[in-house]
Amino acid sequence: MEEFENNGKKEEIFSKAVRAGKRTYFFDVKATKSDEYYLTITESKRRFSNEQGKFFYEKHKIFLYKEDFEKFANGLTDVIEFIQTGKIPETSEEDFRITGEHADVDFDDLDKDFEK
What is the CATH number of the domain that holds 17? Predict the structure, then answer.
């Protein structure tokens, strides 16, 4: 496999930017040292600092590895379906809890698959 390095630092192998109002989302494919691909998703928002009197970019980033793609895609599809229809998808009723106007996620439950 061809190396994608620049001064010892891995570069993006593939990148896609999606502009959405005041935000830009970057989907970047990168490779580990063992040449396994992974995805970084970055949300970038332009903000103004009153203290410094200039604009800056606030960024939030998540890393998504190949072994998690299917679960991530299924979860994203389920919540988009819920937002669009108001109906809880049948495949994920046990993972979906609603309290008031917000989904109630117990982050302690997220590790339950690893405790087995």
Answer: 3.10.450.700
CA atoms within 13 A on the CB side of 27: 5
User: For 14-23, 34-43, 46-55, which range has the lowest pLDDT when averaged over its residues?
Assistant: 46-55
**Can you give the pTM of this predicted structure?**
0.65
HEC per residue, 69-116? HHHHHHHHHHHHHHHHHCCCCHHHHHHCCEECCEECCCHHHHHHHHCC
DSSP type of residue 57: E
* Residue 9, both tokens: 């630092």
pLDDT at 10: 60
What mean pLDDT is predicted for residues 30-53? 92
Domain membership of residue 107 as a residue range: 5-114
State residue 88's pLDDT score.
Answer: 85
Instruction: Report the run of H or E that residue 19 belongs to, with start and end.
Output: strand 14-20
Q: Which helix (H) or strand (E) holds 7?
A: none
